[in-house]
């Protein structure tokens, strides 16, 4: 038991070391670019056009000066500028903004909306919680704000633990946040045996099935243990040709194999309840197919 826990800690430390190495490399690359820019610039960098332009953009946050569009939040309007929005993302291209004088963000949490607008103008992000970072991440992905997605990923990676790992993995998969996804995947592999059905209850069937296939030897067994008949059904559908061959050869000792895993009546109750719309014969076939797949996995 002690050796197992030590191994988990070692794997977790390995993930952290990898992430630290990535951050070091990113810092080194930024430093090189900064030094090259400083060497080729005028002596007083604060007087360069680029510096003055960036500083001017920061000061234009919620300013009426040059404002040609408003962003409507739930309980306030924010002055904005089409040029700056367009420069940040192709999501706000000329065809989108040319005829608009207002963007309706009233369906977005006001705090999230303000955080995104501030980032657009200042590149600064003030995150108060994991949930807040997730909300910003989702909208940043929707608006094609890739640099903001990276900033959210960096914060979330530092906040990942075994209890929120599945949730963060799910969001990362949805918005294609590869760094966060890979980090969560590694942590899930390390602590797989510590997870239970409640950890996966909000994960979609297709995503959970994909995960079980990559992280377990017998995905059907795992789906049953997690009480996820939707995932079991996906497994049955994907392997239907194998089930038909097994059924043609007769049930044999399949009921005995099934009872070793779970009560034989488990699926009869679960599957028939969920798939009764397809008729009793279909639900019976699904139950039989489950026995066939268990035989194949065993």
UniProtKB/TrEMBL annotation:
Pfam family membership, one: BTB
PROSITE patterns referenced in this protein's UniProt entry, alphabetically: BTB
Gene3D superfamilies: Potassium Channel Kv1.1, Chain A
TM segment ranges: none
Domain BTB: residue ranges: 67-129
Protein name: BTB domain-containing protein
Organism this protein belongs to: Henosepilachna vigintioctopunctata
């Amino acid at each position: 038991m002690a050796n197992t826990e030590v191994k988990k800690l070692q794997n977790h430390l390995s993930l952290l070391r990898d992430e630290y190495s990535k951050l070091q490399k990113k810092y080194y690359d930024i430093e090189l670019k900064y030094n090259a820019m400083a060497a080729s610039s005028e002596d007083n960098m604060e007087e360069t056009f680029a510096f003055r332009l960036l500083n001017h953009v920061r000061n234009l946050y919620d300013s009426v000066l040059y404002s040609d569009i408003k962003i409507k939040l739930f309980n306030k309007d924010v002055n904005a500028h089409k040029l700056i929005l367009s420069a940040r993302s192709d999501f706000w291209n000329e065809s989108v903004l040319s005829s608009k004088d207002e963007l309706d963000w009233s369906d977005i949490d006001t705090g999230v909306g303000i955080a995104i607008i501030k980032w657009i103008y200042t590149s600064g992000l003030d995150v108060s919680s994991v949930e807040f970072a997730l909300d910003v991440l989702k909208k940043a992905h929707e608006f094609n704000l890739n640099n903001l997605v990276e900033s959210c990923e960096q914060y979330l990676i530092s906040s990942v633990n075994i209890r929120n790992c599945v949730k963060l993995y799910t969001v990362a998969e949805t918005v294609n946040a590869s760094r966060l996804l890979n980090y969560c995947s590694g942590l899930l592999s390390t602590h797989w045996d510590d997870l239970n059905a409640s950890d996966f209850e909000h994960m979609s069937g297709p995503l959970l099935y994909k995960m079980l296939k990559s992280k377990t030897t017998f995905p059907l067994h795992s789906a049953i243990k997690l009480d996820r008949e939707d995932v079991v059904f996906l497994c049955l559908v994907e392997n239907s040709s194998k089930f038909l061959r097994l059924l043609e050869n007769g049930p044999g000792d399949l009921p005995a194999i099934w009872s070793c895993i779970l009560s034989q009546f488990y699926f009869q109750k679960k599957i028939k309840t969920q798939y009764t719309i397809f008729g009793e014969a279909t639900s019976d076939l699904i139950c039989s197919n489950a026995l066939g797949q268990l035989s194949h996995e065993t």
